[in-house]
User: Which sequence fits this backbone?
């Protein structure tokens, strides 16, 4: 968690006792949101195994790949899933607690031409050019003849979450309400990986498989608008473990990696009733 995130969270917590909550009781209400994200990743060791090779490249740097703003993409229902997006459906089990299920569509691209350490074995049958036994040796990640690696059809995190909601301030005759939200979640990783290894490219974008899991936490500020809509800014961070990344379709070739991530999300959402309030009394 970076310094700005810590300061943000402390400001929220110190604000708890300075207001009187007037939040509409949302017990029994459902909600959804849609939004977009920027993601940041820790360095990661990536291991590749297959016929004739078993090696790892260490402390690999990667970045996200946001789609440049274009109204024909971001406001076109047929293309909404092209950018890095976030979708969630939830339900309030009481006035301050909600359960939700959603899809984090991040993107992850290894930085080409970086120099990293390599360990392991590459046999001549896999690549005559790189055949060797490696022990902490330096190698350049050349995208055309050695390695290019990305999850750009989605570093997809299908996440179940539990959130705590607390109002900080009610404004304009309760038409606008400012709240903070704290939560935790876990779920499955289902990336679609585009890889070039030893000059051979495979884009695994036709099928989706479970390839690992993640644990995460989130915190943010939410502004309710006229009791039916809201906007929310969310900081989301966590740990991803993917031991079975498919690299060459249905073959036995695999990659594995662990990543720490930080994601900043902006969303627009709406509430909708599921249970009548009278039935809850």
Assistant:
């Amino acid at each position: 968690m970076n310094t700005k995130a810590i300061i943000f969270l402390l400001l929220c917590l110190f604000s708890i006792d300075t207001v009187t909550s007037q939040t509409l009781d949302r017990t029994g209400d459902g909600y959804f949101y849609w939004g977009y994200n920027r993601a940041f990743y820790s360095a990661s060791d990536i291991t590749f195994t297959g016929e004739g090779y078993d090696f790892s490249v260490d402390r690999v740097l990667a970045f996200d790949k946001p789609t440049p703003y274009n109204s024909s993409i971001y406001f076109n229902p047929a293309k909404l899933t092209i950018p890095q997006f976030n979708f969630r459906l939830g339900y309030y089990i009481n006035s301050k607690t909600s359960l939700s299920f959603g899809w984090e569509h991040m993107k992850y691209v290894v930085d080409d031409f970086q120099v990293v350490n390599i360990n392991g074995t590459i046999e001549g049958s896999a690549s005559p050019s790189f055949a060797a036994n490696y022990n902490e040796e330096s190698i350049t990640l050349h995208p055309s003849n050695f390695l290019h690696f990305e999850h750009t059809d989605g570093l997809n995190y299908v996440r179940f979450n539990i959130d705590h909601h607390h109002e900080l301030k009610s404004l304009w005759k309760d038409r606008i309400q400012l709240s903070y939200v704290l939560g935790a979640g876990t779920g499955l990783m289902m990336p679609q990986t585009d890889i070039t290894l030893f000059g051979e490219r495979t884009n695994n974008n036709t099928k989706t498989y479970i390839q690992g899991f993640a644990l995460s936490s989130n915190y943010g500020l939410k502004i309710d608008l006229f009791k039916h809509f809201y906007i929310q800014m969310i900081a989301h961070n966590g740990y991803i473990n993917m031991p079975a990344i498919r690299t060459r379709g249905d073959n036995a070739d695999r990659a594995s990696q662990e990543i720490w991530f930080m994601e900043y999300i902006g969303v627009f959402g709406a509430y909708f009733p599921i249970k009548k309030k009278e039935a809850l009394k």
Observations:
- The CA atoms of residues 22 and 170 lie 7 Å apart.
